[in-house]
Amino acid sequence: MRPLLERLAAGETIVGDGAWGTMLMARGLRPGVPPETLNLSSPEAIEEVAALYLDAGADFITTNTFGGSPLRLRAYGLEDRLEPINRAAVEAVRRAVGGRAYVAASIGPCGHVLKPYGDGDPDEIAGGYARQLEILADAGADLVIVETMTDLTEARLAVEAARRAAPDLPVMATMTFDRTRRGFFTVMGVTIAQAAEGLAAAGADIVGSNCGNGIEAMVEIARELRACSERPLAIQANAGLPESRGGAVVYPETPDVLASWVPALLAAGVRVIGGCCGTTPDHVRALRAAVAAAPPAR
Ligand SMILES: [Zn+2]
């Protein structure tokens, strides 16, 4: 496969995969159990989900390692399983995609608020990300995705750890914003401009937003990002905001709704388009079709 950054530089739009949690729950993941344990107990479930997203047209498939950092695993008494859990995650996706899509190493928040507001020690967090990333890179990941970040300092620690531990891999970093009456902020108070600048300064090749919003708000976020960043932009939207219907959580935006906003995302300079919570292979298929139907980026 041609390197991801070359394809972006040549004007290609890259399509990501969709949600994993709901897909894994349908394959035996129980509430309260860390999803990453499935990498060892049910690698065939991981392969199956990866294959569904590959078949839907995703250019990259994320690994089931969002909570696979040492600090997150420690909360479940699984820190000593760091290496097998992360290695198995990459290997399962690699088997499923067989070189037809990039294997994207997912890195999520460590679950601790940084000092002085919480007990998170920056050196420990950075060191933990570096250990996780060394394993993911060694197992054969093609890119790193630092995602669903709300604290810019933590996001920067993760991006910098990726740059050190996996210097050959492109890094995409996305934060999660909420709409407020004063504009978009992460729950930790980070603005879109601060995120764009800080993530790029830390070494991210691609910056953007994932989770927290449906597709329409993501178009607004993308326009704001474009106004303050020269980097290729990534948007991975939820299928709308979750609603409770008859005791079940439902994400209301259909594949067609998501796809209808693809031209607006492209016009805003978004070059990596994928799904987050509530999205399915059908959403990815619709995004892929809308990207294919759009004229190439200028
Ligand atoms: Zn999400």
Structure description:
With 298 residues, the protein is α/β, with parallel strands linked by helices. It has one domain (4-293): TIM Barrel (Alpha-Beta Barrel). It contains 13 helices and 12 strands. It has helices spanning 4-9, 21-25, 38-41, 43-56, 70-74, 82-97, 122-138, 152-165, 192-202, 215-228, 255-260, 262-267, 281-293; strands spanning 14-15, 60-62, 102-107, 143-149, 171-175, 178-180, 183-185, 206-210, 233-237, 243-245, 248-250, 270-275. The chain is globular. The model has no long low-confidence stretch (mean pLDDT 96). The structure holds zinc ion. Zinc ion (ZN) is lined by residues 211, 238, 276-277.
Write down how many β-strands occur, each being a DSSP E stretch of 2 or more residues.
12
Mean pLDDT: 96
What CATH architecture label applies? Alpha-Beta Barrel
Alpha carbon gap, first and last residue:
23 Å
- Name of the CATH class: Alpha Beta
